[in-house]
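User: Please run a holo structure prediction.
Assistant: Happy to. Please share the sequence and the ligand.
User: Here you go; the ligand is zinc ion.
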Amino acid sequence: MQEKREIPSEVIERVKKLREEIEYHNYRYYVLDSPVISDAEYDALMRELKELENQYPELITPDSPTQRVGFKPAEGFKEVPHAEPMLSLDDAMNENEVIEFDKRIKRFLGLSENEPIEYTVEPKIDGVAVELTYENGVLTVASTRGDGYVGEEITNNVKTIKTIPLKIRKFAEDAPEIPIRVDIRGEIYLNKEEFEKINRERILKGEIPFANPRNAAAGSLRQLDPSITAQRKLDIFCYGVGKVEGYRFTTQWEVLQVLPNWGFKVNPYVKLVKDIKEAIEYHHEMEKIRDTLPYETDGIVIKVNELSLWEKLGTKARSPRYALAYKFQPTQSTTQLLEVVFQVGRTGAITPVAILKPVQIGGVVVERATLHNEDYIKNLDIRVGDWVLVQRAGDVIPQIVMPIKERRTGEEKEIAFPTHCPICESKLVKKPEEAVWRCPNSNCYASLVRKILHLASRNAMNIEGLGDKVAQALVDKGLVQNVADLFYLKTEDFMKLPGFAYKKAKNLYEAIQKSKKTTLPKFIYALGIRHVGEAMAQLLAERFKTLERLMNASMADLLNISGIGYEVAKSIVEFFKNEEHQKIIKRILEAGVTFLEKEEKKPKILEGLTFVFTGTLKSMGREDAKKRVLDLGGRVSDSVSKGVNYVVVGEAPGSKYQKALQLGIKVLKEEEFLKMIESV
Ligand SMILES: [Zn+2]
């Protein structure tokens, strides 16, 4: 006996709220072709509602969004009832759900768990599901899925698609005869290239770009004027049949084999698998290659192969029991736009980059996305503080697809495009035929790279592993716009650089942390003030004792010091007067940079020893090697004589090597030398 139970009021409220939200998003998606949340977020709402309804079946009402498939057709198109309903598929997000699907089928059919079931698998194309009705082999009606029972008539638009036969023909001797009537089902889609082309044109015309190829395909199909549809290069993959009169298919695999022989395009990746394990493997393989396909896929479709089982399994209210969509990791999500920074490229091109509230997309945390150019921002009316739809595909830089204006609070701010270069402050220029602003200073990009390299150099902050290529990549990726940014980068940031796996990224991160313990002279030198070399930095540090005092020094204070002339004094005062420089210094210090009283004295382990170098060292320059010896209390000589203790031999050594052998002086290979000096 089932007892009537109390349903908590929060549950009733939540179910109500979920239904309202889902209905709203259905409307945005199906009627307006303009979704404001990602598919993944929509799915999450739907799942939550389904779970609550499973828990409290008494809450299910006939008008709940779980009880229907799509949405009612928009005005302006004739309604077409489907002879057999075009149901949408249940989704699985992980392996367990797929295994559960297989188990459920076996339970339903009374099979044991280890009896395998054959499935067909195919990529799930991100397009628009359609039904094509052929009577005596002639295309008579084409319709969209609609709500699954009634769709919209789009016959004239569909006829513009060249890969859809207007008449079925037999292309193989052994193909079945053309039936009296057959409903062919497939997905109409736009390939990625065509999608991008359409969006570029829309942006140029000041129209809002489509959020994804599916919306673009839907928008193109649902044109009241078929000549517009004809301009878009729509395509189709056929994947099944609805009602068939005059022929009987026995398996889904047979359908997939016969369709091409009747002139229909079937995806080349369709496959017959012997059990659910193979279906899961297929999913992983397709996910790996999805970015290389010319069209968008968002998962795979798994169908029971035996059509007689379809009848036995039947359907639930909203979806069939014999098929499942096993999704890939989503590539879109929504998040908030926190800030826009302007990145200067190698060619001087200024790119606006969105700094986002971190969001997981396809297993990767996305914090930055490109905004392309000023026109893109203006056309889409993107503002700081907006909720935005973000998309990432493969290795491409994530991009902002659109702002979600419905979520605005009024606090959002327009994005002010800079008039001057963020690196060198030159006035930006734009060619009339281009959408891109550029910094006219050809030296600009290079000078930032140089500043980074100088700061990281051994006698400055001494950041190991930060060479030319890394500095360039940091600027290219927009991770560093001024040298202070370096001290805020995390291991994950370095992993975005070419050739950086976790370990290398972590090493660089740690090298930067280590560099934060420095000395005042090194720091002054690292700032890269004109005319301030190592010796000058040393002098300034000795005289002023603190950075603050140096920053506040007047011309008179500086000129009072012997060894400092007018040029140098002026350069120093101007450097510290610059507000941008003040900000950068403040940010570096705030990152935890501290000055040790004195550099830790290394023990003079080479005291009393004399070294001679010959040949080329791989790990450091000759001057560097000499300095290391001097630092450790040793001496360096240019010629080999009896008083020399060690001759360090690099590649292609000269006559000094011979001499050392003659005199019986100890010869060190480079590795041995390194071992000796690095033992401290
Ligand atoms: Zn510049």
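The chain has six domains: 9-67, 81-327, 332-418+433-438, 444-515, 519-596, 610-678.
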